[in-house]
């Protein structure tokens, strides 16, 4: 995939609301297969699309990109051996030593591309309409769904769901929303009404772990206010929770697609260069002290054989 193809893929992922990182080579020192302007997309699950460099650079960029996605903070990487750079490292730059057979080096800028917050407002009251409109003003993806039409498939674990059906299909809407396990689930209504509704759902067999996450009443307590101000109070609570990091923005750790590639079955990490390799005969296995190590190339395997203690210690520190 060339640079323009990467940007097209980036646009598609953005439209689907998926988080990813965009890596761009901004400087190179030959010999290196990466070129200035080379781009790649790295997904939260560690999939790389595009071209950023060879077997040594790729795993390092993937690891750093996953951290960029998790923190939302961009990074400027300098990839190479420490001896190449000495003390002349600009402030704020992250140096990632890589063990390659060549003397090439890369400077890679990795920026997070996080999806716009996704809000689902269930209901058709004036307050529900106002809340959806205000969220769109903030640049959020906001959907307004009538109670009978709402299903769990319309939300995800990264969504925020506000049920504002006000007596029309409240129980069904909250039950559907709870099944989706969104990052936020709030019910517009009094505490008394909320207690009755949650008790009813508990009797229906909805797990307590899902019901405990329902906020009743949704939003900041502003006292007796208009429906427009109630919408502002709900949106203010959502903004506050997001800013504090209280709302999950990534899939849970149990989601296989979101786990680093090295944690998946049948794969291992090269202890020399950090590249993810197949944990089989193609990974040039080498056993030492009861542990089997795998390598991306004969060069890395030979480096490990020459000084295994250095790489075993490095792996222990990680």
Shape: elongated
User: What is the helix fraction of residues, given as a range?
Assistant: 25-40%
Spatial strand order of the main sheet: 3-2-1-6-4-5
Q: How many strands, what sense, and barrel or not for the largest sheet?
A: 6 strands, mixed
Compute the number of strand runs: 15
Mean pLDDT: 84
Task: Tell me the series of helices and strands, N- to C-terminal.
Answer: HEEEHEHEEEHEEHEHHEHEEEEHH
Number of helices: 10
Structural class of the secondary structure composition?
Answer: alpha/beta
Portion in strands: 15-25%
The total tally of domains equals 3
Using only CA atoms, what is the Rg? 25 Å
Distance between the termini: 32 Å
CATH architecture of the largest domain: 3-Layer(aba) Sandwich
Low-confidence stretches: 249-265
Q: What does this 3D model show about the protein?
A:
By secondary structure, the protein is of the alpha/beta class. It folds into 3 domains: 3-113, no CATH class; 118-244, NAD(P)-binding Rossmann-like Domain (Rossmann fold, 3-Layer(aba) Sandwich), CATH 3.40.50; 265-317. The protein has 10 helices and 15 strands. A 6-stranded mixed sheet has the order 3-2-1-6-4-5. A hairpin with a 4-residue loop joins strand 2 (39-43) and strand 3 (48-50). Helix 4 (126-137) packs across helix 8 (227-244) and helix 9 crosses helix 10. It is elongated and about 70 Å long. The two termini are 32 Å apart.
